Prior knowledge:
Elements: H1 4-14, H2 17-37, H3 41-50, H4 59-69, H5 75-79, H6 84-96, H7 102-109, H8 120-131, H9 140-149, H10 151-168, H11 175-194
Bound molecules: 2'-deoxyguanosine-5'-diphosphate and fe (iii) ion (2 copies).
Residues 51-52, 55, 85-86, 111-112 line the site of one fe (iii) ion (FE).
Amino acid sequence: MKSDAFYQQQIKDRLSEKRYLHSLNVAQSAVLLARQYGADEKKAYTAGLVHDILKDDPKEKLLGYIKENMPNADPVLLSQSALWHSVAGAIYLEKSLSVDDPDIIAAVRYHTSGRENMTLLEKVVFVADFISADRTYPGVEEMRELARQSLDKTIEEGLNFTIRELCDRRQPIYIDTIQAYNCAVLARKQTEEVL
Length: 195
Ligand code: DGI
Ligand code: FE
Ligand code: FE
C-alpha cells in the first residue's frame, strides 16, 4: 500500500479537475460517514479518493481490463459502459498501484453497482458518492439528511432513482444492483417490524 499523498497525486494526474475535486469530496464525505457509522475512517478516505480513478480513461481500455481479468463477466456488465470504471478501477488499483487492502478494493469495485450484503465500508463509499459536496441533483439535500439517519435507507433511495432511470431509458439492470436494492429494502422492513 502506498500513502494517501501518492494516491491523491495519481488521481490528480489521471482525472479532469472536476472529477479530481469530486474524488476529494467523496473522500471527505466517506470519512464523516465512517465516523458516524463506525467504519474505518482511514480506509474510507483512501477508498473515496481512488473510487473513480479510471473514470476518464478510454472505454475500450476499461473493457479490455475487464475482459482480461474476468473471462466469465456478466453480459449486462459488458453492455453497460457506465459500470466499467469501478470494476476496471479495482483491478488497476490492485495490480498496478499496490492497493493490497481487499476492503478498499471491494469498495471501489462495487461503488457504482452496489451488491448483495455490502460491507459497512462499501455502503459508506456508495453513499458518499451520492451525497458528496459537488452533487447538485434535485433532492440531494434530502439524500444528505437521509444519510444522517440510515445508510440502508439512503442506498434504497439512490437505487430507486437509478433503477427507475435505467428502466426509463430501456437499459438492462445489473444483477448486483437489483440485489443491493433488495437488501436495502429488506433491511428497512426489518427495522420497521422491530418498531
Ligand atoms: O462515477 P460517478 O459519476 O461518480 O457515479 P457512479 O460510479 O455511481 O456512476 C453512476 C452511473 O452508472 C449512473 O449514470 C447510472 C449508471 N449505470 C448504468 N448501469 C447501471 C448503472 N448504475 C447501477 N447502479 N446499476 C446499473 O446496472
Ligand atoms: Fe464512479
Ligand atoms: Fe464518483
